[in-house]
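haha ok so turns out i had the wrong file open the whole time. this is the CORRECT one, sorry everyone. sequence first:
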Amino acid sequence: MGKYSIKELEKLSGIKAHTIRIWEKRHNLIEPSRTATNIRYYSDDDLKKIINVAVLNSNGVKISKIVKLTPDQINQQVIALSEQKNSIDIYIEQLIVAMIDMEEEKFEQILASLILKFGFERTFVEIIYPFLEKIGVLWITDNITPAQEHFISHLIRQKLIVAIDALPLPPKTNKRAILYLPENEWHELGLLFYHYIAKNLGIRSFYLGQSVPHASLVSICKEHKPEILITCLISGPKPNDVPKYIDRVQQDYPQAKLFASGYAFKKANVQPTDRFKLFTNALEFKTLIANELIVFNN
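then structure:
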Protein backbone atom coordinates (compact mmCIF):
# COMPACT_ATOMS: atom_id res chain seq x y z
CA MET A 1 0.00 0.00 0.00
CA GLY A 2 1.59 3.25 -1.16
CA LYS A 3 1.84 6.34 1.05
CA TYR A 4 2.38 9.45 -1.05
CA SER A 5 2.96 13.07 -0.11
CA ILE A 6 1.15 15.72 -2.11
CA LYS A 7 4.44 16.60 -3.83
CA GLU A 8 4.79 13.00 -5.01
CA LEU A 9 1.23 13.12 -6.35
CA GLU A 10 2.19 16.29 -8.20
CA LYS A 11 5.24 14.66 -9.82
CA LEU A 12 3.36 11.53 -10.86
CA SER A 13 0.15 13.16 -12.10
CA GLY A 14 1.43 16.48 -13.43
CA ILE A 15 -1.22 18.32 -11.40
CA LYS A 16 0.12 21.10 -9.16
CA ALA A 17 -0.13 20.50 -5.41
CA HIS A 18 -2.09 23.76 -5.07
CA THR A 19 -4.69 22.48 -7.57
CA ILE A 20 -4.98 19.12 -5.80
CA ARG A 21 -5.70 20.93 -2.52
CA ILE A 22 -8.40 23.02 -4.22
CA TRP A 23 -9.98 19.86 -5.66
CA GLU A 24 -9.97 18.36 -2.17
CA LYS A 25 -11.64 21.34 -0.50
CA ARG A 26 -14.10 22.41 -3.18
CA HIS A 27 -15.06 19.07 -4.69
CA ASN A 28 -14.12 16.43 -2.08
CA LEU A 29 -12.27 14.63 -4.84
CA ILE A 30 -10.00 12.72 -2.47
CA GLU A 31 -9.52 12.72 1.27
CA PRO A 32 -5.96 12.24 2.55
CA SER A 33 -5.20 10.11 5.56
CA ARG A 34 -2.97 11.27 8.38
CA THR A 35 -0.10 9.69 10.26
CA ALA A 36 0.06 9.54 14.05
CA THR A 37 2.00 12.81 13.89
CA ASN A 38 -0.76 14.42 11.75
CA ILE A 39 1.16 14.37 8.46
CA ARG A 40 -1.10 14.06 5.41
CA TYR A 41 -0.57 11.19 2.97
CA TYR A 42 -2.38 9.62 0.03
CA SER A 43 -3.06 5.99 -0.93
CA ASP A 44 -2.64 4.01 -4.17
CA ASP A 45 -6.34 4.57 -4.86
CA ASP A 46 -5.90 8.32 -4.40
CA LEU A 47 -2.96 8.31 -6.82
CA LYS A 48 -4.87 6.33 -9.46
CA LYS A 49 -7.87 8.63 -9.14
CA ILE A 50 -5.77 11.80 -9.45
CA ILE A 51 -3.97 10.38 -12.50
CA ASN A 52 -7.24 9.54 -14.26
CA VAL A 53 -8.83 12.87 -13.30
CA ALA A 54 -5.73 14.67 -14.59
CA VAL A 55 -6.07 12.89 -17.95
CA LEU A 56 -9.71 13.94 -18.34
CA ASN A 57 -9.15 17.48 -17.08
CA SER A 58 -6.18 18.08 -19.40
CA ASN A 59 -8.38 16.96 -22.29
CA GLY A 60 -11.09 19.52 -21.64
CA VAL A 61 -13.42 17.85 -19.12
CA LYS A 62 -14.28 20.26 -16.32
CA ILE A 63 -13.54 19.16 -12.77
CA SER A 64 -17.14 19.94 -11.78
CA LYS A 65 -18.30 17.27 -14.23
CA ILE A 66 -15.58 14.74 -13.36
CA VAL A 67 -16.48 14.67 -9.65
CA LYS A 68 -20.01 13.56 -10.54
CA LEU A 69 -18.71 10.45 -12.33
CA THR A 70 -18.28 7.05 -10.69
CA PRO A 71 -14.79 5.45 -10.72
CA ASP A 72 -15.92 3.08 -13.49
CA GLN A 73 -17.21 5.98 -15.58
CA ILE A 74 -13.92 7.84 -15.13
CA ASN A 75 -11.99 4.74 -16.22
CA GLN A 76 -14.17 4.26 -19.28
CA GLN A 77 -13.72 7.87 -20.35
CA VAL A 78 -9.94 7.59 -19.98
CA ILE A 79 -9.94 4.43 -22.12
CA ALA A 80 -12.09 6.15 -24.73
CA LEU A 81 -9.70 9.10 -24.82
CA SER A 82 -6.70 6.83 -25.32
CA GLU A 83 -8.41 5.25 -28.31
CA GLN A 84 -9.33 8.61 -29.84
CA LYS A 85 -6.08 10.49 -29.29
CA ASN A 86 -2.39 9.75 -29.69
CA SER A 87 -1.54 11.49 -26.42
CA ILE A 88 1.71 10.19 -24.95
CA ASP A 89 0.74 11.35 -21.45
CA ILE A 90 -2.44 9.25 -21.48
CA TYR A 91 -0.51 6.10 -22.33
CA ILE A 92 2.08 6.78 -19.62
CA GLU A 93 -0.64 7.29 -17.01
CA GLN A 94 -2.35 4.04 -18.04
CA LEU A 95 0.92 2.14 -17.63
CA ILE A 96 1.44 3.63 -14.15
CA VAL A 97 -2.05 2.54 -13.06
CA ALA A 98 -1.50 -0.98 -14.45
CA MET A 99 1.82 -1.19 -12.59
CA ILE A 100 0.35 -0.06 -9.26
CA ASP A 101 -2.35 -2.73 -9.55
CA MET A 102 0.14 -5.31 -10.94
CA GLU A 103 -2.30 -6.11 -13.74
CA GLU A 104 -0.08 -8.06 -16.13
CA GLU A 105 -2.76 -8.58 -18.77
CA LYS A 106 -3.64 -4.88 -18.84
CA PHE A 107 0.02 -3.80 -18.97
CA GLU A 108 0.75 -6.28 -21.78
CA GLN A 109 -2.33 -5.15 -23.69
CA ILE A 110 -1.39 -1.47 -23.47
CA LEU A 111 2.24 -2.12 -24.42
CA ALA A 112 1.32 -4.39 -27.34
CA SER A 113 -1.17 -1.86 -28.72
CA LEU A 114 1.42 0.92 -28.45
CA ILE A 115 4.06 -1.09 -30.32
CA LEU A 116 1.50 -1.89 -33.01
CA LYS A 117 0.48 1.78 -33.28
CA PHE A 118 3.85 3.53 -33.07
CA GLY A 119 6.44 0.82 -33.73
CA PHE A 120 8.87 -0.66 -31.21
CA GLU A 121 11.53 2.04 -31.16
CA ARG A 122 9.19 5.03 -30.93
CA THR A 123 7.18 3.32 -28.18
CA PHE A 124 10.28 2.88 -26.06
CA VAL A 125 11.79 6.30 -26.74
CA GLU A 126 8.63 8.39 -26.31
CA ILE A 127 6.57 6.34 -23.84
CA ILE A 128 8.48 3.64 -21.95
CA TYR A 129 11.44 5.87 -21.05
CA PRO A 130 9.28 8.72 -19.67
CA PHE A 131 7.22 6.08 -17.87
CA LEU A 132 10.34 4.66 -16.22
CA GLU A 133 11.46 8.15 -15.24
CA LYS A 134 8.09 8.81 -13.59
CA ILE A 135 8.03 5.58 -11.63
CA GLY A 136 11.57 6.38 -10.54
CA VAL A 137 9.81 8.75 -8.13
CA LEU A 138 8.10 5.71 -6.62
CA TRP A 139 11.40 3.84 -6.20
CA ILE A 140 13.08 6.84 -4.55
CA THR A 141 10.22 7.32 -2.08
CA ASP A 142 9.79 3.58 -1.34
CA ASN A 143 6.25 3.61 -2.76
CA ILE A 144 6.95 0.76 -5.13
CA THR A 145 7.52 -2.70 -3.72
CA PRO A 146 10.25 -5.08 -4.94
CA ALA A 147 7.42 -7.22 -6.35
CA GLN A 148 6.10 -4.29 -8.42
CA GLU A 149 9.61 -3.41 -9.59
CA HIS A 150 10.30 -7.00 -10.69
CA PHE A 151 6.87 -7.21 -12.31
CA ILE A 152 7.46 -4.15 -14.48
CA SER A 153 11.12 -4.92 -15.24
CA HIS A 154 10.33 -8.48 -16.27
CA LEU A 155 7.58 -7.49 -18.72
CA ILE A 156 9.63 -4.75 -20.37
CA ARG A 157 12.76 -6.91 -20.44
CA GLN A 158 10.85 -9.68 -22.23
CA LYS A 159 9.74 -7.28 -24.97
CA LEU A 160 13.27 -5.96 -25.42
CA ILE A 161 14.88 -9.41 -25.69
CA VAL A 162 12.30 -10.60 -28.25
CA ALA A 163 12.85 -7.45 -30.33
CA ILE A 164 16.66 -7.78 -30.17
CA ASP A 165 16.57 -11.45 -31.17
CA ALA A 166 14.38 -10.60 -34.16
CA LEU A 167 17.03 -8.29 -35.64
CA PRO A 168 19.49 -9.75 -38.18
CA LEU A 169 23.05 -10.33 -36.99
CA PRO A 170 25.32 -7.65 -38.52
CA PRO A 171 28.36 -8.84 -40.53
CA LYS A 172 31.66 -9.43 -38.74
CA THR A 173 33.23 -6.62 -40.76
CA ASN A 174 30.90 -4.02 -39.21
CA LYS A 175 31.82 -1.73 -36.34
CA ARG A 176 31.87 -3.60 -33.00
CA ALA A 177 30.52 -2.57 -29.62
CA ILE A 178 30.44 -4.14 -26.18
CA LEU A 179 27.59 -3.26 -23.81
CA TYR A 180 28.04 -3.87 -20.10
CA LEU A 181 27.21 -2.67 -16.61
CA PRO A 182 30.14 -2.34 -14.16
CA GLU A 183 30.27 -4.35 -10.95
CA ASN A 184 27.31 -3.75 -8.60
CA GLU A 185 25.21 -2.14 -11.32
CA TRP A 186 21.97 -4.10 -11.89
CA HIS A 187 19.44 -1.87 -13.68
CA GLU A 188 19.80 -3.12 -17.24
CA LEU A 189 16.61 -2.01 -19.04
CA GLY A 190 18.29 1.07 -20.50
CA LEU A 191 21.33 -0.92 -21.59
CA LEU A 192 19.12 -3.52 -23.29
CA PHE A 193 17.44 -0.80 -25.32
CA TYR A 194 20.82 0.66 -26.30
CA HIS A 195 21.69 -2.85 -27.48
CA TYR A 196 18.55 -2.86 -29.64
CA ILE A 197 19.42 0.55 -31.13
CA ALA A 198 23.03 -0.39 -31.83
CA LYS A 199 22.15 -3.71 -33.45
CA ASN A 200 19.35 -2.10 -35.48
CA LEU A 201 21.86 0.41 -36.85
CA GLY A 202 24.10 -2.43 -38.02
CA ILE A 203 26.66 -2.48 -35.22
CA ARG A 204 27.96 -5.92 -34.28
CA SER A 205 27.20 -5.62 -30.58
CA PHE A 206 28.05 -7.98 -27.73
CA TYR A 207 25.80 -7.71 -24.68
CA LEU A 208 27.50 -8.70 -21.40
CA GLY A 209 24.75 -7.57 -19.02
CA GLN A 210 24.83 -6.75 -15.32
CA SER A 211 27.71 -6.37 -12.85
CA VAL A 212 30.60 -7.33 -15.15
CA PRO A 213 33.97 -7.67 -13.35
CA HIS A 214 36.61 -5.38 -14.83
CA ALA A 215 38.99 -8.29 -15.45
CA SER A 216 36.32 -10.07 -17.50
CA LEU A 217 35.72 -6.95 -19.53
CA VAL A 218 39.45 -6.63 -20.26
CA SER A 219 39.57 -10.24 -21.45
CA ILE A 220 36.54 -9.90 -23.73
CA CYS A 221 37.81 -6.63 -25.20
CA LYS A 222 41.12 -8.27 -26.08
CA GLU A 223 39.26 -11.00 -27.92
CA HIS A 224 36.66 -8.91 -29.80
CA LYS A 225 38.56 -5.59 -30.10
CA PRO A 226 35.51 -3.28 -29.97
CA GLU A 227 35.63 0.26 -31.27
CA ILE A 228 32.85 1.26 -28.86
CA LEU A 229 32.07 0.52 -25.20
CA ILE A 230 28.56 1.30 -23.96
CA THR A 231 27.68 1.46 -20.27
CA CYS A 232 25.41 3.04 -17.69
CA LEU A 233 26.20 4.07 -14.10
CA ILE A 234 23.32 4.67 -11.71
CA SER A 235 24.28 3.62 -8.19
CA GLY A 236 27.99 4.34 -8.28
CA PRO A 237 30.84 5.09 -8.05
CA LYS A 238 30.92 8.24 -5.93
CA PRO A 239 31.08 11.51 -7.90
CA ASN A 240 34.76 12.08 -7.09
CA ASP A 241 35.62 8.59 -8.39
CA VAL A 242 33.77 8.85 -11.72
CA PRO A 243 36.63 10.64 -13.57
CA LYS A 244 39.01 7.94 -12.28
CA TYR A 245 36.70 5.27 -13.65
CA ILE A 246 36.62 6.97 -17.07
CA ASP A 247 40.43 7.25 -17.10
CA ARG A 248 40.78 3.58 -16.16
CA VAL A 249 38.50 2.44 -18.97
CA GLN A 250 40.26 4.62 -21.54
CA GLN A 251 43.66 3.44 -20.39
CA ASP A 252 42.71 -0.26 -20.53
CA TYR A 253 40.92 0.05 -23.90
CA PRO A 254 42.89 2.68 -25.87
CA GLN A 255 41.27 1.64 -29.17
CA ALA A 256 37.69 2.15 -27.95
CA LYS A 257 35.43 5.12 -27.33
CA LEU A 258 33.26 5.06 -24.21
CA PHE A 259 29.58 5.93 -24.62
CA ALA A 260 27.95 6.38 -21.22
CA SER A 261 24.80 7.51 -19.46
CA GLY A 262 23.34 7.40 -15.98
CA TYR A 263 22.81 9.41 -12.83
CA ALA A 264 26.36 8.86 -11.56
CA PHE A 265 27.88 10.65 -14.58
CA LYS A 266 25.36 13.48 -14.29
CA LYS A 267 26.05 13.92 -10.58
CA ALA A 268 29.82 13.97 -11.19
CA ASN A 269 29.38 16.71 -13.81
CA VAL A 270 31.96 15.18 -16.17
CA GLN A 271 32.42 16.63 -19.65
CA PRO A 272 32.50 14.70 -22.95
CA THR A 273 35.72 14.37 -24.96
CA ASP A 274 36.70 12.80 -28.29
CA ARG A 275 36.89 9.39 -26.62
CA PHE A 276 34.16 9.84 -24.01
CA LYS A 277 30.60 10.46 -25.21
CA LEU A 278 27.90 11.29 -22.68
CA PHE A 279 24.17 11.00 -23.39
CA THR A 280 21.03 11.40 -21.29
CA ASN A 281 18.45 9.41 -23.24
CA ALA A 282 17.97 6.87 -26.02
CA LEU A 283 17.40 9.50 -28.70
CA GLU A 284 20.72 11.20 -27.92
CA PHE A 285 22.41 7.79 -27.91
CA LYS A 286 21.02 6.94 -31.34
CA THR A 287 22.24 10.27 -32.76
CA LEU A 288 25.74 9.80 -31.32
CA ILE A 289 26.02 6.24 -32.61
CA ALA A 290 24.68 7.18 -36.05
CA ASN A 291 27.26 9.97 -36.32
CA GLU A 292 29.99 7.55 -35.24
CA LEU A 293 28.97 5.16 -38.02
CA ILE A 294 29.17 7.95 -40.60
CA VAL A 295 32.77 8.64 -39.57
CA PHE A 296 33.59 4.91 -39.51
CA ASN A 297 32.11 4.24 -42.96
CA ASN A 298 33.91 7.19 -44.53
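The mean pLDDT is 84.
again sry for the mixup
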